[in-house]
């Protein structure tokens, strides 16, 4: 008799052991009480809401911090806010090459005496006298008394005088960024939890941060299971395939700003799975692939149950990825910011693993990384002219697609399905750059229709 856990976990009140003092695993479900009922599985929205709530709770466990060089900080997450050390800009700055002036005087078009000149990097040698103008370069400090800058291109300068050409006028404040307009010294410019990319690096640099306090990367154990798997270097024998999920998930985990800890592949055998799960207890998140379908050698759920797991759901009405398992298990006192080890049992087919990672594991990982924005990320696009793809009643589909983000001036980006041969089609996955969402109720997505896409 085969155990099939294909049902939503029946939780009352809060389903999250995580918010309690101690994990209190429920007794593993008995085979007699387990039924195979697709209709009782959570829909995508319910499962996504459950995971989002869980991730929000995880966010209360603050990861440890470490200090890194600014140049090494891209891809990390701020553990401390970035504060302005000075007013920004620190002086009233001209945004143009031209002439600093009093707007009211310049707008009369009278000749103004040139009283001085300031280039970027210099302090003005004095204030602007009445009835005068002051030559100024982009980025230079505006002399005291000036309230506008008119552009070089709009001026006529001769014999130590300059005038603003008709019909141009200038308004007070034009072409000047006032001191402190962007921030005042001490202002919080970015909160902790902000993911760091080039723009945050630039802002930190402007505030004098040569190093940054960031959260430690969460450690994600990746456990691939399956008797058919061989190493990437190996030539597969009859019935064997190369293990692509370990490399793929490691890449996804690293791209998410975490550390990938690839465990040895486990055979479809109870003892091997028990040993692998015991080893994984030190991780911050556990990703298992394979062995969660209803087949005779899909032994991952029973192994998780033996390890004291509590299942939040076992199966979601999505395609690919329906057998997805989400839960948490006790760590046996192993050190980590969280008292329990969250895990996902991802279906083994590579496209299923990728989609379920993006939809469900990535937000939990983002929370463990200390990020404020957890995802997943969706956008709207317009269906291209190619043939449509049918919906499947009762399942939300996430199908490999290609969106041309650059081609379409003005309108929505255009998206097409990538031809594919099911969830094992790694070529289709690699040629895609997003996933088209086909809603449960949708018959099909017609050319020209507006559709949601899941971004990687
Ligand atoms: P399973 O979820 O174990 O039933 O596996 C479903 C399909 O995914 C099977 O065709 C497996 O051979 C394939 N598969 C499972 N694990 C991996 C892996 N690590 N890399 C590539 N394919 C896999
Ligand atoms: Mg398998």
Q: What can you see in these coordinates?
A:
- With 456 residues, the protein is α/β, with parallel strands linked by helices.
- Helix content is 18%, strand content 26%.
- It contains eight helices and 27 strands.
- The chain has helices at residues 44-58, 103-106, 198-206, 245-255, 270-280, 300-306, 350-368, 426-431; strands spanning 7-8, 65-69, 82-83, 93-94, 98-101, 112-118, 132-136, 148-151, 155-158, 161-164, 176-177, 188-190, 211-215, 219-224, 229-230, 241-242, 259-262, 285-289, 310-314, 318-319, 325-330, 340-346, 378-383, 396-404, 414-417, 434-438, 450-454.
- The strands form seven sheets. Strands 1-19-21-22-18-14-17 form a seven-stranded mixed sheet, sandwiched between helices.
- A hairpin with a 2-residue loop joins strand 9 and strand 10.
- Helix 1 packs parallel to helix 7, helix 4 (245-255) runs parallel beside helix 7 (350-368) and helix 5 crosses helix 6 (300-306).
- The longest helix has 19 residues, at 350-368.
- It is elongated, with a radius of gyration of 30 Å.
- The chain starts with 6 loop residues before the first strand and ends with a strand.
- Bound molecules: adenosine monophosphate and magnesium ion.
- Magnesium ion is lined by residues 226, 268, 290-291, 348.
Strand order of the largest sheet: 1-19-21-22-18-14-17
Structure classification: alpha/beta
Mean pLDDT: 90
H/I helix tally: 8
Low-confidence spans: pLDDT under 50, at least 5 residues?
Answer: 1-37
- The geometry reads as elongated
How big a fraction of the residues is strand?
Answer: 25-35%
Q: Mind describing the biggest β-sheet? A: 7 strands, mixed
Helix content: 10-25%
Number of DSSP strand runs: 27
Taking the alpha carbons of the first and last residues, their distance comes to: 39 Å
Cα-based radius of gyration, to the nearest Å:
30 Å
Bound molecules: adenosine monophosphate, magnesium ion
């Amino acid at each position: 008799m085969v155990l099939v856990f294909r049902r939503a976990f029946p939780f009352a009140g809060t389903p999250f052991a995580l918010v309690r003092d101690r994990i209190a695993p429920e007794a593993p479900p008995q085979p007699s009480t387990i039924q195979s009922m697709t209709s009782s599985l959570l829909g995508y929205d319910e499962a996504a809401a459950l995971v989002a709530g869980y991730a929000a709770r995880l966010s209360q466990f603050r990861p440890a911090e470490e200090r890194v060089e600014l140049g090494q900080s891209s891809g990390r997450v701020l553990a401390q806010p970035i504060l302005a050390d000075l007013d920004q800009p620190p002086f009233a700055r001209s945004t143009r090459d031209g002439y600093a002036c009093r707007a009211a005087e310049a707008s009369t078009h009278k000749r103004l005496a040139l009283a001085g000149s300031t280039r970027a990097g210099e302090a003005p040698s004095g204030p602007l006298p009445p009835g005068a103008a002051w030559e100024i370069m982009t980025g230079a400090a505006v002399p005291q008394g000036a309230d506008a800058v008119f552009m070089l291109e709009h001026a006529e300068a001769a014999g130590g005088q300059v005038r603003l050409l008709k019909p141009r006028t200038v308004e007070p404040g034009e072409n000047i960024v006032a001191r402190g307009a962007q921030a005042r010294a001490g202002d919080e410019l970015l909160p902790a939890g902000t993911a760091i990319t080039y723009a945050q690096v630039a802002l930190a640099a402007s505030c004098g941060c040569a190093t940054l306090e960031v959260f430690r990367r969460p450690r994600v154990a990746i456990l691939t299971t399956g008797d058919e798997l061989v190493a990437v270097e190996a030539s597969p024998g009859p019935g064997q395939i190369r293990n692509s999920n370990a490399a793929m998930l490691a890449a996804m985990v690293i791209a998410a700003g975490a550390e990938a800890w690839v465990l040895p592949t486990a055979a479809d055998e109870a003892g091997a799975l028990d040993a692998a799960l015991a080893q994984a207890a030190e991780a911050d998140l556990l990703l298992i692939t394979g062995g969660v379908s209803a087949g005779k050698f899909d032994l991952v759920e029973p192994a998780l149950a033996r390890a004291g797991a509590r299942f939040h759901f076992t199966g979601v009405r999505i395609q690919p990825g329906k057998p997805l398992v989400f839960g948490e298990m006790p760590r046996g006192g192993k050190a980590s910011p969280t008292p329990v080890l969250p895990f996902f049992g991802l279906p083994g087919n590579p496209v299923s693993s990728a989609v379920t990672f993006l939809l469900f594991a990535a937000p939990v990982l983002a929370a463990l990384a200390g990020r404020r924005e957890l995802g997943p990320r969706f956008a709207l696009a317009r269906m291209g002219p190619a043939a449509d793809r049918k919906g499947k009643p009762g399942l939300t589909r996430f199908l490999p697609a290609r969106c041309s983000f650059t081609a379409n001036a003005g309108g929505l980006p255009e998206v097409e399905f990538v031809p594919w041969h099911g969830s094992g089609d790694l070529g289709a996955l690699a040629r895609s750059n997003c996933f088209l969402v086909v809603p449960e109720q949708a018959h099909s997505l017609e050319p020209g229709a507006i559709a949601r896409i899941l971004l990687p």
